[in-house]
Amino acid sequence: MQALKKFIIREIVFASILGVIAYILFQTILEEYYLPIFWILFGLITVFTAVFHFSVLQVSEKEPSKFSSRFMMVSGIKMIIYLIIIVFYAFSFPEKAKIFLISFFILYSLYTVFEVILIINYFKKRN
Q1: What global pTM score does this model have?
Q2: Using an 8 Å Cβ cutoff, are 92 and 24 in contact?
Q3: How far apart are CA 69 and CA 76, in angstroms?
Q4: pLDDT tens digits, 52-108
């Protein structure tokens, strides 16, 4: 589980950097686009990334042959959960939906790239 510890440390650093950047942007340039729910969304994506990445690492250490199917399953579950959150928010607050969706897309993209890079590095070091 050394890989999980490294991932958690890297995710904390990554989340901290993103949090500081987001805070600075929302206090200055993007002040009019700030939504208080952003920090909840930020926390949810951070936690979901950690939990699902743990699941993928766990199966890759025990049964490497099942990595692909687990990764696809985890990605599908994550997308369904995210879709539920997006639809719920968009219908509950239609006037703020566009800003929410842009914020969500940016966070989702950054965390997806982060996770994929770490998975690729994990398998390069492993082989």
Answers
A1: 0.89
A2: no
A3: 11
A4: 888 888 888 788 788 888 889 989 999 999 999 999 999 999 999 999 999 999 999
